[in-house]
Amino acid sequence: MSVSADIHALVASEAARRRTFAIISHPDAGKTTLTEKFLLYGGAVVEAGAVKARAGRRSARSDWMEMEQERGISITSTVMQFEYRDHVINLLDTPGHRDFSEDTYRVLSAADAAVMVLDVAKGIESQTLKLFEVCRARNIPIITFLNKYDRPGRDPLELLDEIESQINLKPTPITWPVGIPGDFRGVIDRRDSSFVKFSRTARGTRAAAEEVVDPQRAALEEGDVFQAALEGVQLLDEVGAVYDRESFLAGESSPLFVGSALTNFGVRHLLDAIMDMAPAPSPRIDATGEPRAIDSAFSGFVFKIQANIDRFHRDHLAFVRVCSGRFERGMVVTHGPSGRPFATKYATSVFGAERDTIEEAYPGDVVGLVNASDLRIGDTLYVGEPVVFPPIPTFAPELFATVRPRDTSRFKQFRSGLAQLEREGVVQVLRDPDGDPVPTVAAVGRMQFEVFSHRLEHEFGATVDLKETAYKMARRTDAATAQQLRSLGGVKVLTRSDGELLALFENPYWLARLERDHPDWRLDHILVDAAPA
Ligand code: G4P
After folding, report:
1. What is the CA radius of gyration of the chain?
2. Closest-CA residue to 249 (of 91, 114, 350)
3. Considering only CA atoms, which residue is closest to atom 24 of ligand 1?
């Protein structure tokens, strides 16, 4: 085989063993615990608990961390890479705090699949719903994990109904629990009808002990609960809740697993499913609708920028998702928007906050480029045949605040900070070209405002007054509709820097009425411009 045939084959086989996914969940559903258990099963940590320990260590490192530490939260999302069953897993971590930001959404643009973690006592919660909508807009396949089954909770059949009716995703359980929530004995694996009995390890620090028990013994040992589980399985068969690869990959149905991340019950089943069911990286569709073959020359796009992580080195770390080809550290790539060469001498992998120099990467992997201050979110990088990937969508902001420098003599610093932070995607900046010169900043989570003010003050020396307004939602509109809207109260039309007109509304009911009464007005949901998957 020629060298070039070799490299094509290598890239194709490396891509095929990659699984790049994110976990979506509501705070407290168990995402951090599950992440730790994945790392434990992947051998990336020896004992569960290491993720939090790492997070603690990094807190000493920069002023970001001061804020994180004070509040006990993680502001920045990270990527964890580990091997499991000869696969390479890239787990993209979405920030796990109560208040999220656009970063949380953007991370999903780099994922090929998502694991949706639901607390068995709670079902679908608000943040799961929002994140789910982003997955749906991109048709990202979703595997569902019903977590905390070791604790009292709701009837799992009721939860299946809730998933189907609330988000129109058809759950197809692969495992079904034996025992009620709070009395979790094990699961029936519907693929081969085996009963897998779980037993606990001390605080779940090691893999859960599993034993395959034959049905006769299970019926004897587990009694009525085993019978009830069999009836549950029969019911699922009857209603056709059966795994279907095509509808799963289309984001219409979701294989479902039941478990307890805390005690490790069901974690292996879930991880195996990610290897066996979740898709490997596939050719990314470019802005003209053409796929870029996996084994063509290197290409990737920036989905997240993390700036000034270390205050002593004003660095910008750009997270690039590799879409095709082999990335090698030191290679010179073309920066799509400027057409300029970009040297990748300082390329790192980012595991939690630990950085290691990375030598090579393949489709599905994430590379951290250091000193990447010229790169912006959504930028394409490539080698060889030029390619432009579609922009990463901006998301419908729900919070709006006016912002002005407290000290007017710092106006210059304020202006350049505002421009920089907008470029990084920390907040969206809206202006009224014909009216009030005070800009409005927009976000999906309040934390974005906090990070914005903090950075303006500490990095640009401009303390600001941020005043939240009563607006609660935004719709994309056009000039004709804007003219109609301007004559009404409770609505404001502002221009975003990309030229889009956004109409802000205070009252959702009133907006709903306008939409009903004026079907000819343009009032688009902002999420619909999601990039094709
Ligand atoms: P998050 O990242 O989604 O916010 O959730 P996290 O994993 O931090 O879990 C939230 C709480 O739920 C934690 O308890 C965690 O131990 C618990 N938990 C997670 N999975 C399970 C499970 O399967 N069963 C049970 N019973 N509990 C689970 P905490 O008391 O808030 O924190 P900690 O002191 O245990 O760390």
Report:
1. 24
2. 114
3. 148
21-74+112-280: CATH number:
3.40.50.300
Q: Is 451 left (phi over 0), alpha (psi -120 to 50) or beta?
A: alpha
The encoded tokens of residue 219 equal 């019926």
Q: Does residue 259 line the site of ligand 1, with CB under 6 A?
A: no
Indicate if 285-382 has the same CATH topology as 21-74+112-280: yes
Whole-number pLDDT of residue 63: 37
Which atom of ligand 1 is least distant from the CA of 260?
23
Ligand 1 centroid–CA 527 distance in Å is: 31
Q: Which atom of ligand 1 is nearest to the CA of 265?
A: 23
Question: For the domain 285-382, what is the CATH code?
Answer: 3.40.50.300
Contact status, residue 29 vs residue 125, Cβ threshold 8 Å: yes
CA 38 / ligand 1 centre spacing (Å): 15
55 pocket-lining for ligand 1 (C-beta < 6 Å)? no
The CATH number of 395-530 is 3.30.70.3280
Ligand 1, closest atom to CA 34?
7
**Is any atom of ligand 1 closer than 6 Å to the C-beta of 496?**
no
| Domain edges within the chain | 21-74+112-280, 285-382, 395-530
pLDDT, block means (10 residues), the chain with 533 residues: 81 97 91 88 62 40 44 53 92 67 84 97 90 88 97 96 95 96 94 89 69 89 94 95 96 96 93 96 95 97 76 70 94 95 79 68 92 86 96 85 94 93 88 88 88 89 95 93 90 90 92 94 70 34
Closest alpha carbon to 443 in 396, 501, 500, 497 = 396
Secondary structure (DSSP) of 89-125: EEEEPPP-SSS--HHHHHHHTT-SEEEEEEETTTBS-
Cβ neighbours of residue 284 closer than 8 Å, sequence gap 6 or more: 291, 292, 299, 301, 323, 324, 389
Residue nearest to ligand 1 atom 22, measured at CA: 148
Question: Is the beta carbon of 96 within 6 A of some atom in ligand 1?
Answer: yes
Token pair of 178, please? 């034996």
CA distances from 40 to 45, 115, 256, 264, 532 (A): 5, 17, 21, 10, 34
